[in-house]
Amino acid sequence: MIQIGDKLPAGTLFEYVEVEGNGCSLGPNPFDIAESTAGKTIAIFGLPGAFTPTCSAKHAPGYIDHAAQFKAAGVDEIWCVSVNDAFVMGAWGRELKAAGKVRMMADGSAAFAKATGLTLDLTDKGLGLRSGRYSMLVKDGVVAQLNNENGGGFAVSDAETLLKQAQA
């Protein structure tokens, strides 16, 4: 499992882009993790699924509501990562009004979740292998803080906890 001080694994995440520009076409676009984190401070939070109860009511809204405070603390971007496709993440982001605040990044094949070791097996609930619930602060591609829920719950990966760490 990924730890503080580790570099994020190489790979690609996908984001549904609503407006063409900056080399991005309309629709799902691939983003190289190493290139996208180079020279930046990124707040990443992972969760089991778009449109699920805790994720929709508490986890994602906390980061959306605190986006300006994260920026003031030196965070360049906030990423929500889930094992969903880019179309679903885009629709969920529209519903949550995340545009300009949180990038809704799709890990459709769970490649990033597997590479970090931050997985949650929800096969018995009909959901398959998912991302575990966590938050991390990444500086220039290296994990500076990691708050892992270790398979369930919602106690340490909330926006307020990571924001305090970013402000420290």
UniProtKB/TrEMBL annotation:
<comment type="similarity">
    <text>Belongs to the peroxiredoxin family. Prx5 subfamily.</text>
</comment>
<dbReference type="GO" id="GO:0005737">
    <property type="term" value="C:cytoplasm"/>
</dbReference>
<keyword id="KW-0676">Redox-active center</keyword>
<dbReference type="GO" id="GO:0045454">
    <property type="term" value="P:cell redox homeostasis"/>
</dbReference>
<feature type="domain" description="Thioredoxin">
    <location>
        <begin position="2"/>
        <end position="168"/>
    </location>
</feature>
<protein>
    <recommendedName>
        <fullName>Glutathione-dependent peroxiredoxin</fullName>
        <ecNumber>1.11.1.27</ecNumber>
    </recommendedName>
</protein>
<dbReference type="GO" id="GO:0008379">
    <property type="term" value="F:thioredoxin peroxidase activity"/>
</dbReference>
<keyword id="KW-0575">Peroxidase</keyword>
<dbReference type="InterPro" id="IPR036249">
    <property type="entry name" value="Thioredoxin-like_sf"/>
</dbReference>
<keyword id="KW-0049">Antioxidant</keyword>
<dbReference type="InterPro" id="IPR037944">
    <property type="entry name" value="PRX5-like"/>
</dbReference>
<dbReference type="GO" id="GO:0034599">
    <property type="term" value="P:cellular response to oxidative stress"/>
</dbReference>
<dbReference type="Pfam" id="PF08534">
    <property type="entry name" value="Redoxin"/>
</dbReference>
<dbReference type="InterPro" id="IPR013766">
    <property type="entry name" value="Thioredoxin_domain"/>
</dbReference>
<dbReference type="GO" id="GO:0042744">
    <property type="term" value="P:hydrogen peroxide catabolic process"/>
</dbReference>
<dbReference type="InterPro" id="IPR013740">
    <property type="entry name" value="Redoxin"/>
</dbReference>
<keyword id="KW-0560">Oxidoreductase</keyword>
<feature type="active site" description="Cysteine sulfenic acid (-SOH) intermediate">
    <location>
        <position position="55"/>
    </location>
</feature>
<comment type="function">
    <text>Thiol-specific peroxidase that catalyzes the reduction of hydrogen peroxide and organic hydroperoxides to water and alcohols, respectively. Plays a role in cell protection against oxidative stress by detoxifying peroxides.</text>
</comment>
